[in-house]
Structures are given as C-alpha cells and as structure tokens.
Amino acid sequence: MARVLITMTGEPELGSERPMPRTIFTLGALFAALGVTFGAFGAHGLKTRLEPEMLAIFETGVRYQMYHAFGMLAAAWLYTQAPSTAVKAAGWLFAVGILIFSGTLYGLSLSSLGQAEPLKWLGMITPLGGLAMIVGWICLAVGAWKLKPQESPS
Description:
This protein is mainly α and 154 residues long. The chain has helices at residues 19-46, 52-81, 85-114, 122-145. It has a domain at 52-145. The model is unreliable at 1-8 (pLDDT under 50).
C-alpha cells in the first residue's frame, strides 16, 4: 500500500511519496502552455513570414506537442492509480518525443526564415521523436491494462 503525505489542510500532496507523477504532470502542463504559446506565435507572428509548407510543418509540431502534453498528464494520473515501469516510461517517452519530434519541426520551419534553404537534415531526426511518442502510447496502454478494477461495495 502506498503512503501519501497529508498536508496541513488534510489534502494529499500529489507526488509526495513518488516524485514521478509530480514531475511528469508539471512538465506536461508546461509543454501544454508552451504549445498554446507556440500556436499563437505561429498564427500571429509567422503566418506572413513563413511559406505555407513551412507554416504547416510548424503547426504539426504544435499539434503533436499538445497531444503528448495531455498524454503526460494522463501518464502522471495513471501512475498515482497504478504505479508501474510502463507508465513511468510512457511519461518520459512523451517528453522525449515532444523535444525531438516537435523540436526538430520547429527548427526546420524556423530555419527557413534566415536562409535560402531550411535545415532539412533536421527532418531525418524527427521520426525518432515520433517513435518515442508511439512507444509511449503503447507503454501507457500496457500500464492501463494492468490497472486492477476496483471492487464495488456490497
């Protein structure tokens, strides 16, 4: 049975026993905030400065960052219900996936601003981030599958 630290207000402190959910939840929330920021930047600051193809690449990075930020929040919550290596891996794989997948798409699209040719070599790294994201979802599914159903009161 996991122990949970009870605060002075009588409420459990998220992640007090296990720092993983607190870290992943915090990172997920920050990635989501950055996703909204980057989305606004793309829509208002880059729309007239990037070619449509490069803007679409930037927007793909934002969209996948948001999806996987929510995935991190789900992984942190699931870890509080059923801690497992698979769920912990899911949270970290989502974070790595965001950094590599979305990060390289941002770099690729923004590199076209100051150069005649964008840094296309970044596109060769992008699939590694996508792979991390895919494996993260599989790990999350494995963790959810191992979740034991709660017994209903008689």
